[in-house]
Amino acid sequence: MYSNKLYFEATALLYTLSVIMVLIVIAGMLSCVTLWMKGKEPSLHHSLNIPAIIKSFICDVLLQLQILKISFIRWLMHFCIFIGFMGLLAETSLMAFMSHFLSPDNFLSKTFFDYQDGAGAHILDVWGDVFGLMLIFGLMIAIIRRFIIPAKQLETLSKDTMSLVLLLVIAITGFFCEGVRLMYPEYASVASYSFAGNILAKMLEAVGLGLIDYKLWVWVHAIISMIFLAYIPFSKAWHIFVSPLEIVIDASERA
Amino acid sequence: MENETKQAVQNTETEENKVTASPVEKAEAVIDKNAPAPKLKIERFSPRQLMELDACTRCGECSNWCPAYDQDQRESLTPRGRATLYKDIIGRQHGMFSADSLLGKITGKKPVTIAEMDDFAKDLYACSTCMQCHYVCPVAIDTVELWERIRETIVDIGHGPLPDQKALTINTKNYDNPWAQPRSSRGRWAKMAKKKKRIKDVPKDISKKSAEVLYYVGCTASYDNNVEEVAINTTKIFEHSDVDFGMLGSKEKCCGSVLLRVGDKVSFDRISTENIQQFNDLGIKTLVTSCAGCLKTIKMDYKKVAKMNFEVKHTLELIVDLIKTGSLKLTKPVNLKVTYHDPCHLGRHAGIFDAPRELLSLIPGIEFIEMERNRENSRCCGAGGGLKSGYPDMQNLISQKRVDDALETGATELVSACPFCYQGLQVGIQAMDAPIKMRDITELVCMALGDDDEEKKPAAEAASEAK
User: What is the end-to-end Cα distance of chain B in Å, rounded?
Assistant: First the structure.
């Protein structure tokens, strides 16, 4: 069970930080929602059109075809960030759920965590690398569009920069966690599944860094991830929740 | 019409209802502009609209298309900039971190000042409410509804509308038209046209003799000598068909579009309620109008005020129906090379893109060429949303861009279906001395009916055409 050994150390500090993060998220969301609810005019002028909502959710929220119509590069950037972020969030949530709420003998735990016997553990290795690379690829396009070859319509506020930087640091520290993990001899056999992490592990070895303290990377990764999650309701990333809502409401109202 | 607008302002100023300075203007000399601004009435919004301010991803696609930003590259003019600024303002006035809250004081939030509010209001009105931003927004924010609601909150606290726009709203409230013209002369165009034998008869007064169709002429076609052709041509077309129609004449009132667009919702509610009551009492089946602005207002905004017992159509939709049913026969070839400008209120707002193109295809002889920007992406002429009265120079430049689009097609005629666009585009054509003629679509229909009485047109129009 490498997960319990390396990935999830359920210390009191980790729980405390998680609770603080969740409280900040809730406070931020409440701050926004209570402001919205001060509006007293009706939001909807028609009854909800479920087929229009489903169609819009698939085409405009998941596939983001409306962005593809505008620009392939912008679609590629946003799609990679969106899918990458959601994929990693799902993976982390799944692992956190299994490690904290399921017994080690549970079928899910044995399948996904026991890398010696559980076939699912390798899926998670590939999963993390694929979505992590997608996220970094999308972020690199975003950084190029904002700071290196600026698209003329972009106007960058500190909030825009902050969200990009935090996401990038989360993705990079995530790969460092994986790379350092694969430097431990007992994990050499899973290296082929974690293809990107393995390349990083070899690079770290090549530059002579050897075994860096794995726990340090995990803590850096975890704390920055929590800062980002807590920052969501106050940042540009708030649109992750709000924009899809507006898209489907508009589709329903205009149907 | 720019002159007419100025005239309307002058008319207003000379009468008892003088254009009063906004509270900000009055206070400029005596009040510290750094004093806190009055609180906005946030309850005017729907929760969805306040959420929309958060939904903006600041991608900036709107700024690529905004006709106002195209002329004045200031971030505060873009829909993105407007949403960001307003979100900040209401956050500081009403949010959990508002300037007067404990959290706001801890985090150093400052109150919104009168100067800030004034600057915001000035830029807020540099918008033609063309709705292009909604169509290009990846999040589909219902932008124009949001801008109009924001304008209402600005009007509430006396920071809007702009002085020239205010003249139009005061006129509308006092004269039932924005041009400060007497109610009694609203139907004058019809009497003059009858006198010159351009129409067979003055359309019947529908309040006295019932009819199936009410022709709602609108203020611009009723009072503007250069645009009354739209009303005359519409009447001629109906006379050629078997449609049972009438109009309200001096009893017709402004639809209230100008009030709603600049944020005077209280006055709009009054005039729209009176109009709906009047229309409902007529027992008509259909209300038709040749004005895209009136159509949008009556068809889409009135239904939020009260129920209506009739359908609302643009004249060209009815004309297409009449041609299809054989009631109207277009036989005379109109050998012109034309391009069509989609009025924002007819196209993007009301979704009527096909009917005008179908009508053009039904007119024999027409060679129709689309402009590169058409339908949902049609470039605005800049006349709507109070922009023409508030920022006439900007409107002129926006209009010239659209005329450029038309000239690129090689067309000799620029056709539209809105008296206000007619005025707006004419500004650009005259400024550029462009070799293209502005026409309302009803004029082409009359030509195809063989009822194009050029020699009977007003002298000013004839001189313009000769040029």
Answer: 18
C-alpha–C-alpha distance, residues A168 and A170, integer Å: 5
CB-based contact, B61 to chain A, within 8 Å: yes
Chain A residue with CA closest to B62: the answer is: A153
B304–A contact, CB cutoff 8 A? yes
Which tens digits make up the pLDDT trace of A166-204? 999 999 999 988 888 888 877 777 777 888 888 988 888
Transcribe B70-102 into DSSP letters: HHS--GGGSHHHHHHHHHHHHHHHHSTT-TTSH
**Look-up: residue for tokens 């996904």?**
A112
Size of interface A-B (CB pairs under 8 A): 108
Q: Residue B29 above 70 pLDDT? A: no
Omega before residue B161 within 30° of 0, cis: yes
Partner residue facing A247 (CB), from B84, B91, B140: B140
Vertex B350 angle, CA B346 and B356, to 5°: 45
In the block, which residue shows the tokens 């007293």? A40
Query: Model pTM?
Result: 0.89
pLDDT at residue B422 tops 80 = yes
Residue that is written with structure tokens 């998220």 in the block: A25
DSSP 8-class letter at B113:
B
pLDDT at A4: 38
CB of B60 closer than 8 Å to CB of B80: yes
Residues in a beta bridge with B337 = B367
